[in-house]
Design goal:
- This protein has eight helices and no strands.
- By secondary structure, it is mainly alpha-helical.
- Helix 4 runs parallel beside helix 6, helix 5 runs antiparallel to helix 6 and helix 5 runs parallel beside helix 8.
- It is globular, with a radius of gyration of 19 Å.
Length: 210
Amino acid sequence: MKRVLARLDRSDGLWFPQLRRGLEGLSRISPGYWLNSLRRGSRCTAPAWVSEAYQGASVAIGLAWLALIDVHVLSILTHGIAVVVGATIAALRIADILVFSLHWMFVAERPLKGYRRSLAGFVLNLFEVAVYTTIAMVLAGADSSLSARWGLLKANIGRAFRLDGSAFDGASGWIAIFAGFELVVAWFLIIVIIANVVGGVFRGEQRSGI
């Protein structure tokens, strides 16, 4: 018993180390992690443009997907198993952003390359969450007309930035689930943004960049 207690005394805690290891493992599944790894080489961090390119491509793909979702040639993607696959892909991108924000809060220790750049990235993450939530909702049965899609995107952007779930109080089924998931991810992102704004609560900022 004394040996067990002595080992616990030397550890970082009971559950927090497990949380860190779990988040570290989940972060390694992300496409962004592997893109960073390819460009990192022997350096401590990958070039700044890699993560920005990945995020920019994600936003562009999401907006194009949302705009073209009812085009006749692509209408097959809104039926049958394609709906499940598409909604799963959209949900996985949202989950990827959630894991990234949790990893930033509880695991990452390297100094920030610049809090302004990091802040812009997290704000864009909020926009991404709204875009992919809208895609998932349309695939789950929300009105897919052009005006309705962009109206839904506007509502999702407002909910993500204001943490307001009242717009979907009457929602049910998968649409309600996706709306709730968006709020959870947005909540964590807002926490990260606040931490970033107050000067990097968790990590310092490198002197060499912004």
